[in-house]
């Protein structure tokens, strides 16, 4: 779990200058935590990096950016360290760094490869209706149950490493309430004065990134609730798919898919308009690969429902299942891990606030 010294040292240099200046006091969760320290160990900097949402307000407010000799770019310094921490804590090791470098290609290869396997699996007996006439329910469960549980195990190991590294203590209900409340409101994406991020253009505030994140989060939760309700209907009420438009799985899943798909494409568009030098340029491909994979999961799912009676059903089902399988298996090594790390960092920050 060794992080690259150059990222740690650059983040330390900039944090010390910011701590002396304090012009950005109160901009987001990073600065109160930063100003509570006098010296910055690697664990302190790792915690600051994972509190940062890369809104870039501090950069555009800073008087010490280039061409000043201090050459401050705190969003980039924290982004580089943040991605490096994910690489260091990821389990199994090495996979996160590979996805950072070539995320779009890896995601596309996984989707197409898994889709080919699902098409080949059509040779297995299937006697259900709708999608289950192409691939049986038992086959789907056998494939996706491990694909769901193994990434959760990987994330649990990674977050345990992070928690130990930053010196986290016993977690209380109050800590969780603080963290989930902040995350649910996307509080730190509102910017230092509540006007939003400077993510798109230089000194222009916008709530677009916060709104796009909210669409993705709500859409993902609705899709998860849709799948969960379908599982309950199948196993408890003996009501297998396919379901009508007015069933609970569809009432949750259709708006969830629309929000998830639109939000992911919105984030991709914002990322294209953003300055990559204010983030981690080496991880740009991985971040974009994940966002596009998320969009493909959503839109292929909606396409599957709309074209369920067409001759293309088998192909669309294979592509959709391939994208879902790729999403789950790659989840611990993609930007999706950011949500888990950030929530953990907010819990640790709640402990700092309590200890003041």
Note down, in words, how this protein is organized.
The chain is mainly α and 356 residues long. It folds into two domains: 5-86, no CATH class; 98-355, no CATH class. The protein is 66% helix and 0% strand. The chain has 13 helices and no strands. It has helices spanning 5-21, 30-35, 42-51, 57-61, 74-89, 95-120, 137-165, 173-184, 208-235, 248-273, 284-306, 313-330, 336-355. Helix 1 crosses helix 5. The model has no long low-confidence stretch (mean pLDDT 88). This is Citrate utilization protein B.
Helix and strand succession? HHHHHHHHHHHHH
Count of DSSP H/I helices: 13
Number of domains: 2
Q: Could you report the average pLDDT, rounded to the nearest whole number?
A: 88
Instruction: Write down the Rg.
Output: 22 Å
N→C terminal distance: 29 Å
Largest sheet: none
Enzyme class: oxidoreductase
InterPro entries: Citrate_utilization_prot_B, NarG-like_sf
GO molecular function: glycerol-3-phosphate dehydrogenase (quinone) activity
Organism: Profundibacterium mesophilum KAUST100406-0324
What's the quick description here?
By secondary structure, the chain is an all-alpha fold.
Give the helices and strands, then pairings.
Elements: H1 5-21, H2 30-35, H3 42-51, H4 57-61, H5 74-89, H6 95-120, H7 137-165, H8 173-184, H9 208-235, H10 248-273, H11 284-306, H12 313-330, H13 336-355
Helix pairs in contact: 1-5, 3-5, 3-13, 5-6, 6-11, 6-12, 7-12, 7-13, 8-13, 9-10, 10-11, 11-12
